[in-house]
Amino acid sequence: MRTIYKYALPFGDEVSVQMPKDASILKFGIQSVIDSKPEIVVWAIVDTESEMEERRFRIVGTGHPLEDDTTAHGADIPCEWDYVYFDTLFDRRFVWHIFVGCKY
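Above: the chain sequence. Below: its structure as tokens.
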């Protein structure tokens, strides 16, 4: 069955979340601020009967470098980043840009 789910993302430069395979991402957002860090969430259309897979994202602040290293930030599984832009989030005085496009 297809439905819309919300997933919380850990705050960091390169983050991942388990979601059903072929989930279609709709939107990223900030729902609250906890300990001075934004709580970033992603909404996606998912098939609740699909197997799960890891989805990886880059969260880059304005003025921060776009790293080309395939194992940046201690990622367990190396990947190449295409830096496909998806969304921009506004967090008080900070601006975060969300990228998808990790190829294993």
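The two ends are 28 Å apart (CA to CA).
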